[in-house]
Write a structure and sequence with these properties.
This protein has 651 residues and is mostly helical. It has 28 helices and three strands. It has two domains: 404 residues, Sodium/glucose cotransporter (Up-down Bundle); 108 residues, no CATH class. Helix content is 71%, strand content 1%. Helix 3 packs antiparallel against helix 11.
Length: 651
Amino acid sequence: MATQSGSGDFVDNLGKVYGLYTGGFAAFVILLAVLEQFGLPNQIIGYLFVFFTLAVYAGIGVLSRTMQVSEYYVAGRRVPALYNGMATAADWMSGASFVGMAGTLYLLGYDGLAFVLGWTGGYVLVATLVAPYLRKFGAYTVPDFLSARFGGNFARFLGIIVLFCCSFTYVVAQIYATGIIASRFLGISFEIAVFVGLLGILLCSMLGGMRAVTWTQVAQYIVLIIAYLIPVVWLSAQRYGLPIPQFTYGQALQEINGLEQQMLQNGLATVAGLKAHVEPFTNYTPLNFFGLIFCLMVGTASLPHILMRYFTTPSVRAARKSVAWSLLFIFLLYFTAPAYAAFAKLEVYQNVIGAGLETLPQWIYTYGKIGLVKVCGVDASTVEAITAACGALEGHGGVLRLSDLAINADTIVIATPEIAGLPYVIAGLVAAGGLAAALSTADGLLLAIANALSHDIYYKMIDQNAPTHRRLLIARILLVIVAIAAAWVASTRPADILAMVSWAFSLAAAGNFPALVLGVWWKRTTSAGAVAGIIAGFGITLLYLLVTRYYPVFGVEVLGMTSLTNALTGAPVVDVAAALANPETAFAALHSKIGWFGVNNISSALFGLPVGFLVMIVVSLLTPAPSKEMQAFIDDVRRPRGPTVMQEKTA
């Protein structure tokens, strides 16, 4: 794969190559299952899963090394639609989807479907509004398009700022996910584990750029989808005799509902503390539920690392087909996530809630030691620790109640095989899948950031005569620097995975979507309008996110966020007086709710996106129309046939 001809031979034999790879991976899993029966220690199984998969991905990265610009940035634009769909699905199904999605559905129930609906529906916007036209344009990066469409480097620079902010936030979440997995299965501290995961990310992406990332992501998709499906298929067959969990989890929901009623009758839960799994709007108001769906949909069509994937296809038609394949491959996981959450919750309700504190299963202590499971408000590290904590609670009878158990949402998928008592090799397989999901997305994100810094800033704005080897060297150096910075931020545990990912979507939606959509579909959009719209929309979203997350009291006192009621019901969202009197303790309760109309900060784009569109339209109408040449350029971009509009130098 290291040469042009070699790459061509590889592309011609993709079916055979990945067929052998899938068979080899299946044989590896079966071998470990047999060795487990012969007494191979669980820790060794965990080590083998993590290091074997990392070695395979790193090997693909090394074999795909390149010194050709088009290969490094867009994989030579020769990736077939089917395999680009798999790579896009792996790029898309990050640690948030694999590790966090089912956990969020476990905790939120019906309200968690906002993530499934938003992320899936977003690909309709990708296919119809953005991806084919960027492919026809022929860019290497999203800022490339903004610069060409709106003239000059200022629009490019704004695009780089948006790209960096949303991609860096997103990649921190992925490295956080790798830290959780590596910490659990390698038995090392979380702070060290994030850098172990980082090593695998760099080996995949640093040498071969987009070409290495593409072929690695195809391999990672195969691992992650197998790992995601097997545990829940196993549980479905075990419980209901049908290995199709998407059809059986309705029965699981009925059992969950019955167990919830029993817990109420037995005093193991209270009406106030029990949020029924299938009851809508128990965690999110209707405004926040539908607002989150909207922000995630628009954000999907605005994320630079996803849009970059469609620059790699041979043609506009292939880009459209690639979106369809992406949806199919993503659907396989998203259609399964609700079942995963239901089976996990059923296992916890049946086997954990109501058990004596001295008889709790071992997995609670395994994850409690790394801070992911709490009992009675303390990390479940030892029996003595939780017994003392629960004993200090008035009226506690030594039996685990629903309110006593707090499971981090990012734990559910990784822990489900252990919760259900499945063979440990299944737990190791799930860890390998979660690692594949997080690594694949992190690769794409880091590449998007490094490419923007090296291509859009260094090459386009500083030295347009830079030779190929220097451009690629700078790209690799910047990739390493950004990766280390992201790992350091992740080691501080800034938030849960899904929250960080949602912030990235809102930032991308407000910063990119108006400029991309109007840039393609409204020829009257001017450079001044685009610049003003990006600044206004992105700026308001970023301000709202930062203030509500980190400075809630400042938001109340200075920005006028005093109407803290549900926009539809009028019920109070937070106690402002208490927040001002005791800001330290109020922080955790306020950070996701305080704001205009009670909109959660994971839906920050609800304010910035309409402002971005409005400002862009108004300023465009007040400034001279684009030239006839530019309008002809836009017509050409919207025409599916014909050569690529922008022909980039390749050496």
